[in-house]
Amino acid sequence: MEWLFLALAIPTGIAAARIDVLITWTINRVRHGRLKISGNWAEWVPNSSGRQFSIGTIGYNVLRRRYNFDGTNYNNDGTPYCHWQTVTSYIDYEKLEFHYTFATKDVTSLQTTSYGNGVLQLVRRDDSLVPEDGYYMYATPSNTAVLASHTMRSISEIPESRYMNAKELLAKTFPEHSDALD
């Protein structure tokens, strides 16, 4: 008799969890609109010295059931400084924020990894939620703390390789800040 209860309880529990996820997703979509964060994004980091530009891609990872925000931070001459990859993330629908933890590797020392946290502020545009700006914080391998805010723009193209110089693309994306490019 106990095995029969167990045989019925497990599928019922799994179905209930799936229904809960579907209901939560539907409520959030009705309350906040469609989530349109997937795509390529360029960042302008005004209070950073020498590394004021980044390019990243946000995409949904079905296997991990989360959004990843992976990309490259560039020196002001357009050469890559470091690459980051999402370790974990979640969306806070109450505060309209996308939170992510990332691992970053300096291009001059790919064996060294440091970790940080980032937050993207989401805004409503045309019945959708899209990133507008945000901030991130991390510690460099030399244990220097970095906190920086940034603005974001959707872009249609990204460099073919994350090791390519992105100066021309960044100048075209941020013409008002192109004087910061060396």
Overview of the structural elements:
This protein is α+β, with helices and mostly antiparallel strands. The protein contains two helices and nine strands; from the N terminus they run αβββββββββα. The chain has an eight-stranded antiparallel β-barrel. It is elongated. The model has no long low-confidence stretch (mean pLDDT 87).
Largest sheet data: 8 strands, antiparallel, barrel
Q: Strand portion, in percent? A: over 45%
Note the overall shape. Answer: elongated
In helices, the fraction of residues equals 10-25%
Kindly summarize this structure in a few lines.
The chain is α+β, with helices and mostly antiparallel strands and 182 residues long. 21% of the residues lie in helices and 47% in strands.
List strands and helices in order, with pairings.
Elements: H1 2-32, E1 34-35, E2 39-44, E3 53-61, E4 66-74, E5 80-92, E6 97-106, E7 113-125, E8 128-139, E9 145-155, H2 167-173
What features would you highlight for this structure?
2 helices; eight-stranded antiparallel beta barrel; 9 strands; 182 residues; alpha+beta
